Structures are given as structure tokens and as C-alpha cells.
Amino acid sequence: MKSKRFSVEQIVSAIKKHEAGLSIAEIAHKMGIAEGTFYAWKKKYSGLESGQVRELKQLREENEKL
């Protein structure tokens, strides 16, 4: 399986930057990703806060153990 380059916190931070007014093209260029990747992240992680991100990570780790 391919390793992940960005943490969930970094992804949420990028989404927050977009909500603050930065264009998707600028964010994608700075992070070195495709715009489609950003849209997929936005669909998956939009509306999350940092506390919710940690909780989501813990739940996913527990599910992997099961």
C-alpha cells in the first residue's frame, strides 16, 4: 500500500485555507497535488475541526485492529 504524504491535520488546514479565500489552484500547486485530489479531500474532510480529526484517526485505528 502506498504511504500517505499528508496528515489529516494538513489536509484540514488546506481546506480551511480554501474557505478563507485562497484558490484551489494555488493550494494544489503549493502542496504538489492535483486539483482533483483536493476536491476528494474536501468531500471527505470538510467541516471537521482539529479535535474531530484526532477522534476520527483513533476510530480508524481501532477499526483496523478489529
UniProtKB/TrEMBL annotation:
It comes from the Bacteria. Signal peptide: none annotated. GO terms for biological process: DNA transposition. Gene3D superfamilies: Winged helix-like DNA-binding domain superfamily/Winged helix DNA-binding domain. Belongs to the transposase 8 family. SUPFAM superfamilies: Homeodomain-like. Pfam families: HTH_Tnp_1 (PF01527). PANTHER family: LOW CALCIUM RESPONSE LOCUS PROTEIN S, TRANSPOSASE. This is Putative transposase. One of its GO terms (molecular function) is transposase activity. It comes from Idiomarina aquatica.
